[in-house]
Amino acid sequence: YPVIPSKFCFVCFFNATATTEIYTLSLHDALPIYLQWMPHRDLRSVATRLALRSADTNDKEGWAAAIHRFWLSAQSSHAISSLLSLSALHALHRLLAAGELPASLFFAEYGPIRRPGVNRSYDPPPWRSPQSVSEELYYTGLLHSADGRAVDRCRSLMLPIDLRPILQQQVEEQ
């Protein structure tokens, strides 16, 4: 075929680093990546709810690592029954069975997640006093977006991959 000269040139650059990182993760590293996707304010709230944050820290990576260690530790088996209501345990069981659920259906059944922002505040804050099952799971670091979007804009929800076997065992013991 003959080459026809053109005045236009299209150049596209793709940064596939995030996608590549997601697919090359070991199961052990999955939770910190999902937690890194959480907005700073929400991650701080999870660390606060789980009593893993000191007042003077503002380190997102440190919070993610502490939350990760918390859920992988042997003490988490006792924590799940004290942190979650029976309704939240039921939702956890459904997520474990399905692997991933459509966000719109999950929120319709288990309630929305209130996320404080610049022009939104709640008293008491949702991580201290969750008003829905969705909030209980989200503010304990267990409910995550399956597509990397903010949890209130995602298409589907899931549990962290590396916690599924641990959570499955704990839910069965309840």
Structural notes for this entry:
- With 174 residues, this protein is mainly alpha-helical.
- It has helices spanning 17-23, 30-37, 40-49, 60-72, 76-83, 86-98, 103-110, 133-138, 164-173, and strands spanning 100-102, 144-145, 156-158.
- It contains nine helices and three strands.
- It has a three-stranded antiparallel β-sheet.
Mean pLDDT: 79
Radius of gyration: 19 Å
N-to-C series of helices and strands: HHHHHHEHHEEH
Largest sheet: 3 strands, antiparallel
Structural class call reads mainly alpha
Major β-sheet strand ordering? 1-3-2
Helix share, percent: 40-55%
Count of alpha/pi helices: 9
Runs with pLDDT <50, length 5+?
A: 13-28
Task: Please indicate the percent range of residues in DSSP E strands (runs of 2 or more).
Answer: under 5%
Question: What is the rounded distance between the termini?
Answer: 69 Å
Globally, the shape reads: globular
Can you count the beta strands? 3
Write the layout of secondary structure elements.
Blueprint lengths: L16 H7 L6 H8 L2 H10 L10 H13 L3 H8 L2 H13 L1 E3 H8 L22 H6 L5 E2 L10 E3 L5 H10 L1
Antiparallel strand pairs: 1-3, 2-3
Helix pairs in contact: 2-4, 3-4, 6-9
Descriptive keywords:
globular; 3-stranded antiparallel β-sheet; 174 residues; 9 helices; mainly alpha
Write a compact overview of the structure shown.
This protein has 174 residues and is mainly alpha-helical.
